[in-house]
């Protein structure tokens, strides 16, 4: 594919589908289309396809409404049927390295190699005092049958998948710490790592990146839908109303608690319910961070960047910062986008951006 051709990244979540179309090269990234649409429940569960035919119908409708060019897209995946491991190899050329990875993969993953799709990314190359060279790689293995389900969905929707990538890699690309046309954050200092956390409805995707490269990834089977369902059960309301309260009222914070149309006691009760529901989520994040720090990685985590639907939960940055004792902010998924030529206004795009982080990262991949 020519570097200037339109590239579409697609993110399929439990209750949402998002896509971004980008043209141009690394020096001039242009967003030409972007869309987010709700999905009915039961089509996607914990990052896997649950209903091929139903999801295909929704994807076909979404593609037409979004006005995306062509019929091809890049898909991001993240679920418990994907294994990510770090491995070390001597300094060998790319062809020999791939053969070595495939040969040794079975010792590193719990999936039979014959039933898996393998890929890897070189994280670092170091030279020892004696002149020997070592390459550290991140190995990704996905169950072939799980991937085939996504391929079947695309085919039934009249589309095709031109590439499948780990969502953590896409997240790292869209939230890159390099300076760009739109940049509202200081770049990471040498030796520091950043935890990138995409909070979807059903799963949370965590990646720890150093210098823009993921060093560690984990999929957590908890998302913002757990907060919504807790409110539904507590207040006896519909899901849509509960989701709106998650965004408008949210968690307890350090600012004013006044919310238009709600009594102070009601706001306090919603804070209490959502704070309790978020505790298990923050505990999972803490365990992931602690585990990362026990491994031999390049840098200590200095801050957290949030994206995804869950990042729109009011006061979630404050809550997690207090719980994890780290700076937390919403990541800027538009950092690598130099120009907006979509039908969305800049204000609309910026409001939608947290939900587009993975889709944008997938669309950016083609320019490397």
User: Can you say what the CATH homologous superfamily of the largest domain is?
Assistant: ATPase, nucleotide binding domain
Taking Cα atoms only, what radius of gyration do you get, to the nearest Å? Answer: 21 Å
The number of distinct β-strands equals: 16
Q: What amount of the residues lies in strands?
A: 25-35%
Helix content: 25-40%
Principal-axis shape = globular
What is the structural class? alpha/beta
CATH-defined topology of the largest domain = Nucleotidyltransferase, domain 5
Low-confidence stretches: 178-188
What is the CATH C level class of the largest domain, in words?
Alpha Beta
CATH architecture of the largest domain: 2-Layer Sandwich
- Compute the average pLDDT: 90
> Total domains, how many?
3
Count of helical regions: 9
Spatial sequence of strands, sheet with the most strands: 10-6-1-2-3-16
Q: In this structure, how is the largest beta sheet organized?
A: 6 strands, mixed
End-to-end Cα distance: 12 Å
User: What is the chain-wise order of helices and strands?
Assistant: EEEEEHEEHEEHEHEEEHHHEHEEH
């Amino acid at each position: 594919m020519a570097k200037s051709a339109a590239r579409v990244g697609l993110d399929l979540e439990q209750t949402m589908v998002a896509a971004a179309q980008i043209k141009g090269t690394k020096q001039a990234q242009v967003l030409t289309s972007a869309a987010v649409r709700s999905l009915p429940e039961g089509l996607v569960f914990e990052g896997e396809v649950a209903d091929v035919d139903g999801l295909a119908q929704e994807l076909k409708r979404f593609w037409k409404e979004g006005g995306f060019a062509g019929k091809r897209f890049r898909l991001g995946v993240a679920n418990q049927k994907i294994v990510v491991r770090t491995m070390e190899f001597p300094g060998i050329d790319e062809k020999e390295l791939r053969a070595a990875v495939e040969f040794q993969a079975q010792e590193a993953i719990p999936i039979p190699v014959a039933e898996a799709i393998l890929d890897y990314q070189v994280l670092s190359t170091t030279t020892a005092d004696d002149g020997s060279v070592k390459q550290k790689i991140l190995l990704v293995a996905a169950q072939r049958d799980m991937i085939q389900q996504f391929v079947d969905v695309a085919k039934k929707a009249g589309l095709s998948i031109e590439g499948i990538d780990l969502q953590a890699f896409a997240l790292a690309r869209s939230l890159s710490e390099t300076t760009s046309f739109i940049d509202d954050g200081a770049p990471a200092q040498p030796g520091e790592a950043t935890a990138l956390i995409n909070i979807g409805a059903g799963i949370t995707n965590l990646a720890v990146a150093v210098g823009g490269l993921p060093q560690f990834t984990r999929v957590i089977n908890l998302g913002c839908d757990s907060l919504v369902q807790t409110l539904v059960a507590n207040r006896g309301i519909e899901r849509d109303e509960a989701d709106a309260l998650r965004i408008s009222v949210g968690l307890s914070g350090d600012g004013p608690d006044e919310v238009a149309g709600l009594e102070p006691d009601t706001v306090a009760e919603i804070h209490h319910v959502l704070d309790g529901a978020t505790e298990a989520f923050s505990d999972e994040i803490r365990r992931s961070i602690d585990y990362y720090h026990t491994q031999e990685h390049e840098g200590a985590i200095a801050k957290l960047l949030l994206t995804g639907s869950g990042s729109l939960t009011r006061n979630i940055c404050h809550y997690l910062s207090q719980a994890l004792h780290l700076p937390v902010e919403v990541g800027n998924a538009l950092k690598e986008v130099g120009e907006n030529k979509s039908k969305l206004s800049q204000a609309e795009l910026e409001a939608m951006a947290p939900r587009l982080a993975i889709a944008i990262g997938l669309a950016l991949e083609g320019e490397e």
